Structures
1.
Amino acid sequence: MNILVLGGAGYIGSHAVYNLIDNGFNVVIVDNLKTGNKGAIHSKAKFYDGDIRNKNFLKTVFKNEKIDGVIHFAANSLVGESMQKPLEYFSNNVFGTHVLLEVMNEFNVKNIVFSSSAAVYGEPEVVPIFEDFSTIPTNTYGETKLMMEKMMKWSSLAYGINYVSLRYFNVAGARSNAEIGEDHSPETHLIPLILKVALNQMKEITIYGNDYDTYDGTCIRDYIHVEDLVDAHLLALNYLYSGGKSDTFNLGNNRGYSVLEIIEAVRRVTKHQIPFKIGTRRAGDPSILIASNEKAKKILGWTVKHEEIDSIINDAWNWHKLNPTGFKKNLTSQFN
Ligand code: UFG
């Protein structure tokens, strides 16, 4: 079966590609390498360098390859950045998905699994968050993911495109054998930044606000191991191919950690002092996001193998120790 992975050179996309190839799928990657890494591209995947908003380019890919299903990761995904550059997010995320759905419809490709986000919920009234909670995003990024979901819903009704929307909570960790990991530039995510402090590449971590209405005043997030997360994509593909109806699922661990608790966990795992300072709040940040993952467990048969935060951080740490400056630029992965 041929699976087109859009954004397959990115952090989550590359882990999904490795998992698909481990499970015998043929993989075609499209990535514009704006945020993805060449070094994260699996040597057994066929790679097209281009932007999904370029319709002629995308049509060429669908013309050349017999695509059986699509997994769509290609998007800008930073909460803070989305508040500074909203139009870039609407263009890449919303318009990009629009072009993709047009091309899928033209080529009669009917199944798509795509990355949505916990950011669609905004500030929840209670946790854990269930899929039927109201969606009132507090940032542009979440708004674009919600618009993508809505485009999928109406396209599904009109064109019979079946979708599974996966609402990710905070994805962390790396492939357990440390072949690939998380490398953004610039890095903005909490765990890789704290690991940079452990590696002495940064003096300290800045906590974005300690005046939230949480038990220690810092934001609470639900961290899910990237390998558990990508497992759910294969289950979702399988679900669609078995005739499952279009649906939306949370992917999280059902457990929250504050920023201070994450710093403490990194200290335990790395045995390094992690100095921090308190900064101001970051625009767009909800105070608390914790998933109910019952629905994905029940309907997709998903299981979370890495429940412990220390095990998630440990896998991230192993990759960062081996790759302190990230992927080697312009090279394929050292393991390929
Ligand atoms: N944080 C800090 N200091 C930093 C970086 C982050 O205090 O230097 C805090 C943030 O304010 C937030 C928490 O750590 O409270 C996690 O921040 P990240 O930037 O690691 O992740 P986000 O929660 O902003 O966003 C991530 C993904 C989104 C996804 C969201 C879902 O990047 O794509 O999780 O919860 F939508």
2.
Amino acid sequence: MCGIVGYSGGRSAASILLNGLKRLEYRGYDSAGIALGGPDGVCIHKREGKVAGLVEQLGDYENRPEIQRAHSGIAHTRWATHGPPTTANAHPHAGGSGEVVLVHNGIIENHSSLRAKLQADGYQFVSETDTEVLSHLIARELLETESLVDAVRLALTQVVGTFGICCMCAAEPDVLVVARRGSPIVIGLAEGETIVASDASAIISHTRQVIYLDDDDVARIEHGSVDISSLDARPVTRETADIDWSSDAVEKGGYAHYMLKEIHDQPEAIRNAIRGRLDATRGTAVLAGLNLEPRDLVDLQRVVFVGCGTSLNAGLVGEYAVEDFAAMLAEVEQAAEFRYRNPIVSSTDLLLAISQSGETADTLAAVREAAEKGACVAGLVNVVGSTIAREAGRGIYLHAGPEISVASTKAFTCQVAVLLMVALKMGRSRRMSREAGIQIVKEIQRVPELVERVVATSDAIAMVAQHFTECQHMFYIGRGYMYPVALEGALKIKEISYVHAEGYHAAELKHGPIALLEKGTPVVAVLCEGPGKDKVLGNVAECQARGAVVVGLITEGDEESRDICDHVIEVPKSPHYTATITATVALQLFAYHVARLRDCPIDQPRNLAKSVTVE
Ligand code: F6R
């Protein structure tokens, strides 16, 4: 989604801001802009398209004194919501007659009524955005108050919706005012300077010391000084945190794409996700952040997993594992559906919100709804300090490291690894024996090495992929634990290669989708050894009888499946519950190679954003 960078300090701001924007490109955007404050006032440069186009527009900016003189500024990458991705709609937006300049993530829901009032007062609009409404609103309040920070406060009290903003004004060009409600803002602290961003990856090359703003915090920044207060002007203290990953983690490290790097990161990422969390003697998991003792777990009667997209698919594995290991009621629900369905939850339910970014609007709303109804709420989140992590109060971090590619890979496999540990812990607090627990611990510990073996077959998977570069449609089928794998495989290929792909429960095929099969239609059948495999083989025969070309995702040494399928991709032998991870890694690579051979922009697929902070 949209990205924000701001700078106030002793250095020339332009290159810091432009480099910050490049760091945020992965989030997905369609226009970019920058505003620089200096002795000559605040000057805006913006355009539709990529950051490279903006840099080109600035010309030889490192040798333009009027640009180099600016020691403060704000910058933005916009993912269009209100109005198409044009230069006029790009941020920053000026308010009043240009005395206020603003970048904004989120949505101002009452923008229409505010716009009408401002127009009646003579304010002229040049864009279709909700953001321009806020910039005029701040400019109007600035007429009545002494300072930008007060004007921002007064304007924000009139706003309904979500915002992460960074604002500056011509009268105080070294001052930035930032604020948030539902859209993250991180403040990076360095000697004599401050770098603000919507995401720590734009800050990490300057400093590791950060402050995460809470909802309704407003901060006034001038060079190295940061004053935080509430929307009603009470001083607020926020802790300083250390970013625990290095700037290398946001580099491609020699890989052609972030997605490929992150697929290769997975053995290490899963090691980090399980490190110190498995007790091989007691046959259980140690999940301190959950803060639930065995006696609390016994009182729980149901686990509800909520998430969106890939995180929702991980939740489905969680549902199967909790039922399987703990013989306990479990459900998974799309977070948007959960929030609007008036769900029945109580204090004996554990709601586990799954989110890589920790900022997904619908998942956050589900957390709030479940907490309102008295459920025990926990987060399963990757980004430290994110809103869901903080609001859930209890939870488990993935420790997968930053995920830059829009298509989620290592977050999914780490989510599944953690969910298996949650199910194990639930199981051990109920009927599961110590011996059975020890066996599951051993299997989870083997996963990083098994994933290494799958990643090493990338070239063989590429050979299979080359048969499918021209296809328009694909089907993915699986049963049991392999059903969420089929869903995730289909999601991966559709988002990065633009091949229309659908994941189905293999049994569902006969209830309609089989009508679409014709000669040459590709079907990916997830046939890893385990309950249901033979039934899927039966479904494969039905597909082949209608001319489909079947790619079997099979267990090494499964000659029966190899003989039946037209192409095969192999994964090492493991129980069905951990094969969810290895099989998904193989399908990530399959999707990656199809997309690469189709020459698709793998890390930044069209229309997609890395974190969906609006409904
Ligand atoms: C797919 C993908 C999305 C996200 C979804 C939820 O590759 O990345 O489907 O999984 O937008 O995002 P988080 O996990 O950040 O809540």
